[in-house]
Predict the structure.
Amino acid sequence: MMHDTQIEKILQKLKNIEEAYAQNIFERVLEIPAQVYETEDHLRSVPSDVQWAEAHSGMSWGGPWMTAWFKGKVQIPPEYHGERVFVTIDSSAVEGFCFINGKPKGIITNPNNVLDHLAHTHVMLADASSEETNFEVAFECYAGHPMIGWHPFENYGKVPADLGDFRRVFRNIWLTVMRDDIKDFVFDLRALRQLVTKLPSTSFRRAEVINALIEVYSVIVQYPVDHDETEWRPKLTTARAIMKPILEQTNSQSAPYAGIIGHSHMDTAWLWTVDETIRKCARTYANVLTLMDQYPEYTFMQSSALHLDWMRKYYPDIFAGIKQRVAEGRYEPNGGVWVECDGNMTSGEAMIRQFLWGQRFTREHFGYTSDTFWLPDTFGYSAAIPQIMKGCNIDYFLTTKLDWNDTTSFPYHSFIWRGIDGSEVLAHLNCIDVWPDVNHVSDRVAALRQKHVSDMRLLSYGHGDGGGGPQYEMLEAARRIRDLDGCPRAEHTTVSKFMNRLEDTAKNLPYHNGELYVELHRGTLTQMHEIKRNNRLAELALRDLEIHSVLATLVTGSPKNPLTNDLWETLLRNQFHDILPGTCIPEAHDQAIEELSEVVATARSEQQTVLSSLCRAGSAVPVFNTL
């Protein structure tokens, strides 16, 4: 018999073993000779008509706002044909964009301003179904830019690999092979280790899992680095056979339910400019599509239609892949709006335009109509929103922000939100930036308030804001908890399916009347006055322009002013929930002020042109009142 202290020591050793074996999942096959090209420009494809130079290990590159492209050619050795072959780069870039044979395929990340650890390290080149063996690989690597941070003297642009002034170091590009037996052992072990920590000490299921883990500990080599691979690797098959029946035990019918879906919360601007967000979107969505090739159960939700329009304009290969996955029901363009806009300062008319632009785009390009207003990160929600949602055929509202309150805990996770006119929508407080593993799923579902109302919670997993979305490790974790006894049932879903199910099964949903006030970020509504003033002036100027344009059409038969839509799109983009409050870096903030000033000036100029077309020459003074 083992004492509890001995058991705890073995469990800690198993955690160390898991980490040690994880280092062996990818085997380096060969180094790929590389060339380099540096630029300040944001290019949308691998540059061709430029002067490339030879890249060598240890070379420095970069500077503020700089990008370096690294490329090389590789042939997969015959002994690895049919294997899962990957490519990786060590460039110390904050974000890297991988292209394979000229096509955007994925992201390589290092610790940066939103991600404090390595996340995406490899991009797949080929698997057992691939016939191609010759590849050109290229990486667009971003050095980063200065950021003043949230507090005095902060600087989010510095990472450990930084040599100062955003200089980075290139080491090499490697061809690697994934060793599935090691990978499967690591994730099987991780799931059971986590399960032990979440089950109560009185649980017989916990005791069963512990017994299996003790047996695993007795058969494997603790330190693979100290032994020949032929000694430690075959033992993994035995270890997995021990864990297999434990992982196959399923839940009872009374187990709570977690709907899981991949997501990458993408701020249209924040600690970076809008132009950089375009690249962040491309890296992330390319990675989503590549992982969908490897994990057929994987579903992904994306909210802002503007980000899809960027893919259509600048990265047509990514957009084509998204269209394919939307048609399959795996990529969900469900957010309802053009951007995740501010929920307080945006006027009612402008918010309706957010829905109009968003719904029109997804209907035109995907044949898809949203049923959800996805607004996880906005700094409060007006009581007028339910009425606007219902008028735009949006039935569901999801946010995470109310869980951020610094004073009062919001009492519900699922509820009916009733607006000022009595309109009602079903609301749910979901989670973002989580892992679909035993730890996070167990904790987030257990934290549900009002458990008598519903046993369901939506978990959107993946790294946001350039972190690349879900990583393969998350998908491996999700496979092990789909119906694992001792953990909530967790299955890939869509936001729409989840909310439909919640609507059908919830009991005695509570009501919240009026504004959803977020007790945090209060100064965002009262500071940075110029951007807020320009927003309101732009809303009024566009209203007046449209009224007079319609009048001119009725009187003279002239067509609608062609500039109106462009001006509206500029305004809608700058109503994003970090732009309009003024919480972006200075470069993004100043750009927004300038763009909205131009909207006001152009709208007023066009208005004068329209009014002139309605007036006859003479001594009379015409007066128009748009109120």
